[in-house]
């Protein structure tokens, strides 16, 4: 690695440490709101049991999300965002998967 690139990397690591310790403010912050699971489910007209099955999660997990005790993370969060914006895409994907597994 070239010296200038290495020095830049070390500077970045030091800056990240200072931000983490609260000694420096980050240059930008990204805030992503959690999807409103209950609203998404309601818009799709599904019960908790149906929606949990659609997402491949337990009903308890869904209830925890809806009641604010937990927040969806990672792939579940992305899937909920897709459900919020393109519910037809999720329903079609699951429908085609069921048909394929019955063949």
Kindly describe this structure.
This protein has helices at residues 3-20, 37-44, 48-55, 59-66, 74-85, 87-102. Helices cover 68% and strands 0% of the residues. It folds into two domains: 1-31; 37-102, 434 Repressor (Amino-terminal Domain). The model has no long low-confidence stretch (mean pLDDT 90). The protein is mainly α and 103 residues long. The longest helix is centred in the N-terminal third of the chain and has 18 residues, at 3-20. Helix 3 packs across helix 4 and helix 5 packs across helix 6. The protein contains six helices and no strands.
Q: In terms of structural class, how would the helical and strand content be classed?
A: mainly alpha
* Overall radius of gyration: 21 Å
Contiguous runs where pLDDT drops below 50 for at least 5 residues: none
Shape: elongated
Query: What series of H and E elements makes up the topology?
Result: HHHHHH
**Overall number of domains:** 2
Largest sheet: none
Helix percentage range: 55-70%
Q: What is the fold-level CATH name, i.e. the topology of the largest domain?
A: 434 Repressor (Amino-terminal Domain)
